[in-house]
Design goal:
By secondary structure, this protein is of the alpha/beta class. It is 38% helix and 19% strand. Helix 5 packs across helix 7. The structure holds beta-D-ribofuranose and calcium ion. The site of calcium ion has 10 residues, from helix 1.
């Protein structure tokens, strides 16, 4: 089993990513940490616990982390995509417990001191940047940082930038410039591996988790219909988890990725040197292709197998 910590901001696709991880025997979810992103820290933390509750995962520690980006002074939420609660759609009961009385970064550090781990950040990179800044000696215990974020050629918040990197570009810079192994799973691949309304609806009869995912998709697809003109939705964050389960779903290439932290139109852009126009050494495994069918099969079969 690969031990992982999922750092998230649930979020519809974050919720699906968590359920996929919990349903997968290849992974041991050591902890779940949260960061302000799709909604406020308080809301996404409650949502993370509510999603774990759906799968009956009451023993996995959950800790809240950063409530705002490192430098930018306000947290910016994505309520037009994820709604007022951050997880609009399903009727979920209130969280069964409080988060741990420990900061997300401390929880990650505590677990990393015990053994090497894979980190799967699927929200803004604030917590991971803080971890690297506070505990540089633990970087050697990070097996891989599988980031859902960035893009080679797309933007979903601005024409240049993907949401997770755009919310906290300074944090992303710190992570991509660290000595850790970084894998970047960006919009280029997540937009080529969409979940259709039919596949999501088919989950409704499989059990509680499947019904929740069907409800999540029914809300989440509204935004995509409006913006993209179809109701197939990218399940960005679940693709990062799928990569930890089965690395053959994605094809990655080692490339140099620089984060634009300027305040112009490209702020938050992941500048990927695909044609190797600079001497900058490769600092990330960048996902360039995806086997969409295998990913969607894995996602739906695994979530459908949860009670
Ligand atoms: C990312 O932004 C968030 O809204 C999603 O949860 C995902 O992590 C996609 O750009
Ligand atoms: Ca997310």
């Amino acid at each position: 089993k690969t031990p992982v910590i999922i750092d998230c901001d649930p979020g519809h696709d974050d919720a699906m990513a968590l359920l996929l991880a919990l349903a997968s025997p290849e992974l041991e979810v050591v902890a779940v940490t949260t960061v302000a992103g799709n909604q406020t820290l308080e809301k996404v933390t409650a949502n993370a616990i509510r999603v774990l509750d759906v799968a009956g995962a009451r023993d996995i520690p959950v800790a809240a982390g950063a409530g705002r980006p490192l430098v930018h002074d306000t947290a910016r939420v994505a309520d037009e995509v994820h709604g007022e609660t951050g997880l609009d759609g399903p009727d979920l009961p209130p969280p069964s417990r409080e988060p741990e009385a420990i900061h997300a970064v401390e929880l990650m550090a505590r677990e990393l001191r015990k053994r090497p781990l894979t980190l799967i950040p699927v929200g803004p990179l604030t917590n991971i940047a803080l971890l690297i800044a506070m505990y540089p000696e633990l970087v050697e215990n990070i097996e891989d940082i599988i980031v859902m974020g960035g893009a080679i050629g797309l933007g979903n918040v601005t024409p240049s930038a993907e949401f997770n990197v755009w919310v906290d570009p300074e944090a992303a810079k710190r992570v991509f410039e660290s000595d850790a192994d970084v894998t970047m799973i960006g919009l280029d691949v997540t937009h080529r591996a969409m979940l259709s309304a039919e596949r999501a609806e088919a989950l409704r009869e499989t059990g509680r988790a499947g019904a929740v995912v069907a409800d999540l998709h029914a809300f989440y697809r509204r935004f995509h219909l409006e913006v993209y003109g179809h109701d197939d939705t990218p399940v960005h964050d679940a693709l990062a988890v799928a990569h930890a389960i089965d690395p053959s779903i994605l094809h990655t290439t080692q490339l140099s990725v620089e984060i634009d932290v300027t305040h112009g139109p490209a702020r938050g852009r992941t500048v990927v040197d695909q044609l190797r126009r600079t001497d900058r050494p490769a600092n990330a495994h960048v996902a360039v292709d995806v086997d969409a069918e295998r990913f969607i099969d894995l996602l739906t079969t695994r979530i459908g197998s949860l009670a």
